[in-house]
Design a protein that fits this description.
4-stranded mixed beta sheet; alpha/beta; 23% helix
């Protein structure tokens, strides 16, 4: 078996709000909300690099599908990394997400590994890092 991650699904409280945040704040491309004709089907997909997709799904729907109790605690268990091409792009993206309503948890700064990054919480408390890593030389 070849390890492959194809979809990262984030539980959200308000699908419309989260769609606007990711589309307008992070400038991720999407066709919008799909699947509304199905019970617990409304979802938003963003196509990322490679074959990876980011899905936003209402917490109640993910809870019903996955057979779990939804929780509002999402802070710090996982960090999602959005790698960009330069220090300046880190600053630009951080400004965009702040304008879109993100809570900046760590302002962009130089990091121990030689890169530059900042952190924010999206409207549902998911932790994101916007990072430039000079050692990856555009291999993103």
């Amino acid at each position: 078996m070849k390890p492959q991650l194809t979809v990262v699904t984030l539980a959200v409280e308000d699908l419309d709000r989260s769609l606007k945040f990711y589309r307008d704040g992070l400038r991720f491309t999407t066709q919008g909300i799909v699947g509304t004709e199905f019970e617990h089907g409304a979802v938003v997909f963003f196509e990322l690099e490679g074959s990876l997709r980011l899905a936003l799904w209402p917490a109640a729907s993910l809870s019903a599908e996955g057979g779990i109790n939804a929780t509002r605690q999402r802070l710090g268990a996982v960090s999602l990394g959005h790698n960009v091409a330069s220090r300046a792009e880190v600053d630009t993206v951080m400004a965009q997400v702040a304008e879109a309503g993100a809570v900046i948890t760590a302002a962009p700064c130089e990091r121990f590994f030689g890169g530059y990054s900042g952190y924010f919480h999206d409207p549902d408390g998911h932790l994101w890092e916007v990072v430039w890593n000079p050692k990856w030389n555009g291999e993103l």
